[in-house]
């Protein structure tokens, strides 16, 4: 039996309100995650700025809620704009013009396709409009249910969306599958008033999306890992066969025979020349093993056992299938598909040689932070962990194409701080191609010449709290400041155009600040768990799901039990923030993994739980559920912009900013709500 008419539409919905709310919420989150992944794989500017798509999504979701009651039309604009976005991105991709591997600074290289100032606004606005459609469908369900019950089903749907996208990532499903999910969701949620219009406005755009994404998958021959769009082609490397691998349109690796690599590129031989332990390589650890060339070289140098750590399962798979030397088939090799820093923190094994072999991820951990997959590898604490995993006489070495002299000096001075003596520094090719080698003691290395030391303007070593290796100064780059300023300006104009006068949201200023601070709290948790348990996609998905579970638990407790008053809950929230601030990650890293997990969950999710009890109590009492919820979501846009403060103050001090914002929310709490 159909539910009663949907608020504000006048249409009879064939799907009852509760399952409709769950489906719409799941689709909304699934679509957000898919847009972040897919646009970043084709627009190289987004490889380090996925936060841009996230901000557009927050804007669209907030506008969707604010639009409820202002229009009776179905949001047919969403599938149409999605189809147009897919076509624009496929016809005008942005890739790097480079023919060799080792890209570190793609922004210093030329790109093909539209410039950033042209394509980024298109992606931002399109993401906002696309997400506004599902959000409007979610928002229309809220007036039909009690407040907290509606919020409960919204959270259940969001968890379902995360689970669905994570399962597809695990299965390496191509974007065509994401397009099919979107087509089915649009078909289920958008009601046909007139069949001809429905075919034109829903079915046709959905077919365009599925066909375009299917064509991309088939023509590019792409593999979809949880991190990248991976493409590859057979080539030659001198007289030797090779496999060239690109990720997200950026040439990334070559699977080359060890003998050929050693013959043509000196950097691969240098670690074995500098380490006195090279004559007795019983155990070798390679972080960033990739398609296997560094593993093959270690075996050719006499390694008796190699632990090969690679975060991306598809790069490892390609190496196993196509590397000419077949190093991964060697019985002396053990593969670990995980984050390199996490492996160092978990293993008790000691090594004769540890190599960081061109670990450059070319992507961010998630849309909620400025953290790259390898950021925690290059901190002073990480190199100290490498030092602690060396046998007597062992050595650590790292190499890459660094492109900037200050970056070579920064990494060398980081090794010096971690090992207590100067490392060997060999600059062996163009593009600041360099090898940095440090023995566990000074006697465990043999340098060709003494390193002169870092220049006066070299930044200090990166640390776990501020792991931004490639940021020269303690500031926010101007490109981010300009872009974020434009994001806020566009958001203000869009909210005014869609929702009308801002005075409608004025009573919910405290809910707006709750949205700002919650986004900062979420960012701190994402980055904290990445350090404690690895920057893998699994950890990232579990953290986001855990946040939603904590929010859902807060809603259920608020629905079923009498909770303390809002002033008391704010006190508990601030107490949780203080606890999180005073317990250092270094202490948690020293705990066994099971105990570390328990402590991390308690410390991280206590303030999240308390913050959402505050929100649930306030939301249940709000006069207008859609306006109040929209104001909270729009606050997340400002929170996403403030996340870039971490580039200056570090991740730990984001808790201070969040605490001040929560105090501001309490100050703006209406007097009548304080007794809730």
Tell me what you see in this structure.
This protein is an alpha/beta fold and 676 residues long. Helix content is 54%, strand content 11%. It is built from 23 helices and 13 strands. The strands form three sheets. Strands 9-8-7-10-11-13-12 form a seven-stranded mixed β-sheet, with helices on both faces. Strands 3-4-5-6 form a four-stranded antiparallel β-sheet. A two-stranded antiparallel sheet has the order 1-2. Strand 12 and strand 13 form a beta hairpin. The N terminus is likely disordered. One of its GO terms (molecular function) is spermidine synthase activity. This is Spermidine synthase. One of its GO terms (cellular component) is cytosol. InterPro entries: SAM-dependent_MTases_sf, Spermi_synthase.
Give a short overview.
The chain has 676 residues and is α/β, with parallel strands linked by helices.
Question: What is the mean pLDDT?
Answer: 87
Q: What is the count of structural domains? A: 3
Return Rg in Å. Answer: 26 Å
Give the strand tally: 13
Low-confidence stretches: 1-11, 98-108
With strands numbered from the N-terminus, the spatial order across the biggest sheet is 9-8-7-10-11-13-12
Strand percentage lies at 5-15%
The coarse silhouette is: globular
Number of helices: 23
**Main β-sheet, in a few words?**
7 strands, mixed
* Structural class by SSE content: alpha/beta
């Amino acid at each position: 039996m159909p539910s009663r008419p949907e608020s504000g539409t006048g249409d009879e919905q064939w799907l009852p309100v509760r399952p409709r709310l769950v489906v719409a919420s799941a689709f909304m989150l699934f679509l957000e995650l898919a847009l972040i992944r897919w646009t970043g794989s084709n627009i190289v500017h987004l490889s380090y700025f996925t936060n841009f798509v996230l901000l557009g999504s927050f804007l669209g979701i907030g506008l969707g809620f604010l639009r409820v009651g202002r229009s009776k039309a179905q949001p047919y604009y969403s599938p149409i704009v999605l189809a147009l976005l897919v076509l624009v991105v496929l016809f005008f991709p942005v890739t790097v013009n480079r023919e060799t591997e080792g890209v570190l600074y793609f922004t210093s290289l030329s790109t093909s396709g539209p410039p950033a100032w042209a394509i980024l606004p298109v992606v931002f606005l399109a993401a906002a409009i696309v997400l506004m459609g599902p959000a409007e469908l979610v928002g229309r369900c809220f007036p039909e249910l009690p407040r907290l019950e509606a919020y409960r089903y919204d959270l259940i749907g969001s968890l379902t969306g995360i689970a669905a996208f994570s399962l597809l990532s695990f299965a390496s499903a191509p974007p065509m599958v994401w397009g099919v999910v979107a087509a089915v969701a649009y078909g289920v949620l958008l009601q046909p008033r007139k069949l001809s219009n429905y075919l034109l406005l829903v079915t046709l755009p959905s077919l365009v999306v599925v066909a375009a994404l299917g064509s991309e998958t088939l023509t590019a021959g792409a593999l979809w890992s949880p991190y990248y769009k991976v493409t590859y082609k057979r080539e030659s490397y001198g007289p030797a066969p090779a496999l060239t691998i690109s990720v997200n349109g950026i040439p990334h690796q070559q699977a080359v025979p060890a003998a050929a690599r050693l013959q043509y590129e000196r950097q691969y031989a240098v670690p074995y020349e500098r380490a006195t332990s090279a004559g007795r390589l019983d155990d070798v650890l390679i972080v960033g093993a990739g398609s296997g060339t560094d593993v093959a070289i270690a075996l050719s140098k006499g390694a008796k056992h190699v632990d090969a750590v690679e975060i991306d399962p598809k790069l490892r798979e390609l190496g196993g299938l196509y590397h000419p030397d077949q190093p991964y088939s060697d019985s002396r090799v053990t593969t670990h598909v995980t984050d390199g820093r996490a492996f160092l923190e978990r293993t008790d094994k000691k090594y004769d040689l540890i190599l960081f072999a061109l670990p450059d991820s070319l992507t961010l951990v998630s849309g909620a932070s400025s953290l790259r997959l390898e950021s925690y590898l290059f901190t002073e604490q990480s190199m100290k962990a490498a030092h602690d995993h060396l046998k007597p006489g062992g050595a650590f070495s790292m190499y890459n194409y660094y492109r900037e002299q200050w970056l070579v000096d920064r990494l060398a001075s980081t090794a010096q701080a971690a090992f207590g003596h100067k490392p060997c520094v060999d600059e062996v090719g163009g593009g600041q191609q360099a090898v940095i080698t440090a023995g566990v003691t000074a006697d465990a290395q043999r340098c060709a010449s003494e390193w002169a030391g870092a220049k006066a303007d070299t930044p200090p070593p990166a640390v776990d709290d501020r792991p931004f290796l490639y940021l020269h100064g303690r500031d926010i780059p101007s490109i981010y400041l300009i872009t974020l300023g434009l994001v806020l300006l566009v958001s203000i104009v869009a909210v005014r155009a869609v929702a009308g006068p801002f005075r409608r949201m004025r009573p919910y200023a405290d809910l707006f600040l709750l949205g700002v601070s919650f986004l900062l709290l979420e960012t701190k948790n994402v980055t904290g768990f990445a350090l404690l348990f690895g920057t893998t996609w699994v950890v990232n998905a579990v953290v986001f799901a855990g946040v939603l579970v904590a929010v859902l638990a807060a809603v259920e407790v608020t629905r079923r039990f009498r909770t303390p008053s809002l002033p008391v809950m704010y006190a508990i929230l601030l107490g949780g923030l203080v606890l999180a601030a005073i317990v250092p990650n270094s202490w948690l890293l020293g705990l066994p993994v099971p105990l570390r997990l328990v402590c991390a969950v308690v410390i991280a999710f206590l303030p999240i739980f308390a913050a959402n009890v505050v929100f649930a109590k306030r939301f249940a009492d709000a006069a207008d559920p859609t306006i109040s919820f929209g104001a909270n979501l729009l606050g997340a846009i400002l929170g996403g912009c403030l996340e870039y403060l971490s580039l200056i103050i570090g991740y730990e001090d984001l808790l201070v900013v969040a605490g001040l914002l929560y105090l501001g929310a309490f100050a703006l709490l209406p007097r009548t709500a304080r007794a809730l």
